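Re-running the complex after MR caught last week's input typo. The corrected sequence lines follow. Everything else is unchanged.
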Amino acid sequence: MLTVVDYGMGNLGSIVNMFRKIGVQTVVAVDPAGIERADKLLLPGVGAFDTAMARIEQQGLLELLNHKVLVEEVPILGICLGMQLLTESSEEGTLPGLGWIPAKTLAFKGRIDTVRYKVPHMGWNTVEMHRESPLTAGFESFEEHRFYFVHSYFVQCDDDRHSILKTAYGLRFDSAVQNGNIYGAQFHPEKSHAFGMQLFRNFARL
Amino acid sequence: MTVLRPRVIPCLLLNDESLVKTVKFGAYTYIGDPVNTVRIFNELEVDELAFLDITASRQSRRPNFKILENIANECFMPLAYGGGICDIEDVGRIFSIGFEKVAINSHAIRNPAFITQVADIYGSQSLIGSIDARKNLWGRYEVFSHGGTKKDSRNPLEWAQELERLGAGELLLTSMDQDGTWTGYDIKLTQSVTSKVNVPVIANGGAGTVRHIGDVIKKGGASAAAVGSIVVFQGKGLGVLVSFPSKQELKDCLA
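Corrected-run output:
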């Protein structure tokens, strides 16, 4: 079953509720036993990078997540901070990330004009289709593609082929990524109405 | 480069379990059930919603988690909550229910370090510093807490700068004088703060027309406009009607 990883970093209610709304059953897992049974994983996250990595470690999930994702190749979708955790490192913290996607998480501050583009990047913004992916199937049918973002750091893939959506905010960053079975979305699908429901439907169908 | 569309946020007031609307922080009118109202706003595809429990702090009441959970269950848009938040456990619980942001007012005045504590654990982007301001007889702005019932010694500008320094990711700046009046935002108050802080400011209090929204964004420098009366009443002095300006109206007012 689609399993939402609960490592104490918020935001689970709305994710579970949107999946319910589109008729997909989910379970929330706090411990290794719950994650063991997952055939699909969702890694949410709101908050600070190091706090999140430390909690994953403290809950004894790191090794198991590595096994599920890299050995069993279970599809995983990281959302917001959850996507940033998929990268190798973040300028927000000093702990290493999960490192499942060759990418870095960088700060907006110092790279964009923060008078014009306030940080955090907060609000609805559009995405451009960069590379075809099962995660964004059916997006062509929408007149516009917009999602809700709240973040101060952004992901930059080392290899542009891992980028599937891009968004402009003072600079162009990777707003959705894919490396095989590993997916990430910087925005919040569960807060993005019809657009988010389409993305969740796509992930549930993988 | 894309510039974000300015956010227009229905700011809905809770009196514990019911939705109300105020005039100048008093004269409550009962609006209805919050969950039904959320369903209507879902259909209207609004940018985001904010809920403030305006009696929680003054009644020393904790947030009503049951109502907040019911609201979040029905809501597929970003949500903020403020009212009676006094400890980090409350904050964690509100996020786990499905809210993106918390707004903190009274407890930040009592204990400014709380803002930094929340920012360190959950990040600044989840944290709204909420300021209620009123002009005194001499025309100077003063800060109030506890739903407008307790005067503080700070002024809105210095408190806004302090909240930013402490870690608030955005500010909700409410004019108590304009609240529920339908006569427009306090542009002067808004401008005085937006010109001196780097975080986004949500202007609140006074929207009576779509043009007022355009004004506070263009002239006041607000990043977002909170709306109350115009989205819950048919018109000034008229009955309850939940509505939202059309995309075209909002586009026009910002042109």
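None of the earlier attempt is carried over here. The mean pLDDT of chain A is 94. The radius of gyration of chain A is 16 Å.
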